[in-house]
Amino acid sequence: MNKVKCLLCPRECELNNGDRGDCRARMNIGGRLQTLVYGKPCAVHVDPIEKKPLFHYLPGTGSFSIATAGCNLHCMYCQNWEISQGEPENTRNIDLAPEDVIRQAINTNCKTIAYTYSEPVIFFEYAANTARLAHKNGIFNVWVTALYINPEPLKEAVTFVDAANIDLKGITDKFYQTMSRATLKPVLDAIKIMKESGVWIELTNLVVPTYNDTAEDFTALCDWVVENLGNEVPMHFSRFWPMFKLKNLPPTPVEVMTRARQIAMSKGIHYAYVGNVPGHEGNNTYCPVCKNIVIARRGYMILDYNIDGGKCTFCNHKIPGRWN
Amino acid sequence: MKDRIFLFISVVLIIFFVAGIVENILLLSLPSLSGKGNSEQASLDAGMVEKPLQLQPKLKDDILTRLEEAGLEPREARYYRVIDE
Predict the structure, then answer these.
(1) Can you tell me whether residue A248 is helix, strand or coil?
(2) CA distance A124 to A119
(3) How far is CA B53 from CA A18, B47, B80, in A?
(4) If DSSP codes are grouped into helix, strand and coil, which group holds residue A48?
(5) Which residues of B touch A (CB under 8 A)?
(6) Is ipTM beyond 0.85?
(7) B22-55 residue pLDDT tens
(8) pLDDT in tens, A200-245
(9) Cβ separation of A40 and B72 shorter than 8 Å?
(10) CA atoms of A42 and A177, how far apart (whole Å)
């Protein structure tokens, strides 16, 4: 039987007959690469889009969220490790063809379908077919992703992904290798391609004590963002909570989260947020010109909304994003 | 008499202890006999390795059966290349 080489992600697994890729969702069966998870999500929920987090994309709307088992990264802090590090035959899956996803998204009044929780890259075929059908029905597509993907499939993905929250886990190769058994450069390249393609992107950086929580880490990360993506890409600093293989660490101190946001703003990033700290001032969106709160939030909940026609209602400054 | 009883109980306990160790060694070295719990643990550990799994023929059959039993319906993926050998 033929050996195959998967070209979906930078791992490029070479698989003999019966072998499974590092993601555990793709397998060489009879000399052909097969996806094991098409139409078989193991997680299906309706979430506020703020949970992704996407703060500048259709705020206050529901997002029909799906995931399958498997992931091409192995993050030590993964909060969804039961599904991301599991095998599809060991998770509780449901039959949900792309047509069913669309039907349920419409029934639940969701404006978007989110491909999330684990990693949409590894269920590419399912996500692609669902997304194209979503567009035909006036529904937008959102990826929540580490974006560890090769350029060719990425060029296809940007034709059906409308918005993405990209997990930029750190800014050193050492961090990616240590924490996720991956490499940094393909992620940085992919982020630039996605941004240049016109997909609305927001970044998330999970701040892990002792791993990526120094002022130097935040500075280097923000410098790269400003230099390569500009200062209008929203940046979410997310508080770590002990999970999976890092239960020995404490939650990130709130003052560290505050410092991360301050460094981002000092570097010129207009929209720097603090996540997983309800009530923090970094939950809100501020107009960079008049400094008023244009969207007040507590966690995922919107408390006040001062954007009209994509502009700050106080000073008329254009706030980037898709607002309706 | 007490000494003999104590000696007898000690010998029995040692036999049980050694038997337990031997049983564990046997079960760990024979995945097909190790039961669901160990099998699942092994599969989780396998998912952590850097390189793709290199499966033994018996295990391949097990996995294909498990896929079928789990209701998975493999379909051809995109973005791959066949390597002729």
Answers:
(1) coil
(2) 9
(3) 9, 8, 17
(4) strand
(5) 40, 43-44, 47-48, 50-55, 57, 60, 63-64, 66-67, 69-85
(6) yes
(7) 765 554 443 333 332 222 232 333 333 333 445 5
(8) 999 999 999 999 999 999 999 999 999 999 999 999 999 999 999 9
(9) yes
(10) 28
pTM of the model: 0.84
Residue of B nearest to A3 (CA): B83
Residue A85 has its nearest CB partner, among B44, B63, B70, at B44
Which H or E run contains B39? helix B35-48
Enter the tokens of residue A189.
Answer: 């390249």
C-alpha dihedral sign at A266, A267, A271, A276: negative
- How far, in Å, CA of A235 to CA of A60, rounded? 19
Distance CA B54, CA A309 (A): 56
Listed in sequence order, the DSSP H helices in chain A are 81-84, 98-107, 124-136, 151-157, 173-180, 185-196, 215-229, 254-266
Residue with tokens 């997680």: A43
- Chain B touched by A12 (CB under 8 Å): no
Min Cα separation B32/chain A (Å): 17
